[in-house]
Amino acid sequence: MAGPISQSSVTLSEPVKNSHFAFAAMTTLFFIWGFITALNDILIPHLKAAFDLNYTQAMLVQFCFFGAYFIISPFAGKLIEKIGYIRGIITGLVTIAIGCGLFYPAAEVEVYAVFLLGLFILASGVTILQVSANPYVAVLGPEKTATSRLSLAQAINSVGHTLGPMFGAALIFAAVGVASEDADIDAKAVQLPYLLLAGVMIATAIGFKFLKLPTIKADETEQDVKSTDSIWSHKALIFGTVAIFFYVGAEVSIGSFLVNYFSQPEIAGLNERQASQMVSYYWGAAMIGRFVGAALTRIIAPIYVLAFNSAIAIILLFTTMNTQGDLAMWSVISIGFFNSIMFPTIFTLAIRGLGPLTGRGSGLLCQAIVGGAILPLMQGYVADVTSVQFSFIVPVAAYVYIAWYALFGSKVKSANSAAPAPAAN
């Protein structure tokens, strides 16, 4: 595909040979935010039981977490322009630590709203990491392999997603007991896991402070030439922003309901701890798919892989909505595999050719991650008024749009361009 960042306008301050070490360092960040984000899938049923919430109320966890992307992303993009990508990463890690630390007093006072505040702060740090790390990884190598490189980084992100639910199931549900009805004990069970995470974030921030990583810089001449350009004139970016909204919303919404879905007698009849462990298979499938996708998108046009995966996800959702038992359970888990390449493919298709506007384009795309706040609320409402099983109709609509973007929306020419953007190849 055409690269997301024009290398005539954005370069590395160090020779390309150092980019391998930089890429390895960046993958730790992808792991971190994957691990933390997946913990929400365990936190939701835990807090739902502790505070006696309905599905819509429980989905406020995702609303506050992913709502931070919408509010913070524009500021994060401007922050990165001022302080640089590496300092932005350190800032993000420290912010995550503050959010994790707030879980301790939240559990002490047993107020759901304080948990939500902590999640918002935590997610603000993750947002800064995303705005910093995604374009950084995209530029660390040849333009034609940007999707493959970002897919590989996202595969490491999926390792974190896979291990996160295991960590939560072991430390949270094990601490309170599967059948515990004591809300006080339930609330305090999150204190140790999130204090541990805060400590890891501080240690990682210190590590990045002393690492010698190449910095990304834009060519000043190119910046001057495009100073009057606007991200709003790039239609593929705008349509891609909507695609990111729906993709993240669908992926998060599905993962958020798995514990409660697998607990239903007609589906799997698992207890919460067992169901929490099964969530790891959903994210593990995405991990495998991203390793496969990193290789596959080198030989097949990413737009066709994206369209195919969207179609299969739709089929699997209709399957789980109309079956029971193992077939219903494993069909929804399998969607994780086909989610795998969606984010990096949409992201790189959307920001290709932006040059000096890449930072702002990345910020807009990360802002669209607010889909993870909106779609779970929508699915929660549908689940409250109908059933959890039927509520999967919400992500179906999301994948329909993604398929359209892959085949049509990603090819729409920019307002200031005489010809369509080149198709991925």
From TrEMBL:
Q: How does it sit in the membrane?
A: Multi-pass membrane protein
Q: Which UniProt keywords apply?
A: Cell inner membrane, Cell membrane, Membrane, Sugar transport, Transmembrane, Transmembrane helix, Transport
One GO process term, biological-process aspect: D-glucose transmembrane transport
Q: Where is this protein found?
A: Cell inner membrane
The keyword NADP is assigned to this record: no
- MF annotations from Gene Ontology: D-glucose transmembrane transporter activity; galactose transmembrane transporter activity
Tell me which Pfam families the record gives: MFS_1
UniProt xrefs under InterPro entries: Glc/Gal_transptr_bac, MFS, MFS_trans_sf, MFS_TsgA-like
Would you name any one GO CC term? plasma membrane
Stretches that traverse the bilayer: 21-43, 55-72, 84-106, 112-137, 158-180, 192-211, 236-259, 279-296, 303-321, 327-351, 363-382, 388-408
Please give the function described in this protein's UniProt entry: Intake of glucose and galactose.
Please state which protein family the record places this protein in: Belongs to the major facilitator superfamily. FHS transporter (TC 2.A.1.7) family.
Known PANTHER family for this protein? Answer: L-FUCOSE-PROTON SYMPORTER, PROTEIN TSGA
Q: What name is this protein filed under?
A: Glucose/galactose transporter family protein
Query: Can you name the source organism?
Result: Paraglaciecola mesophila KMM 241
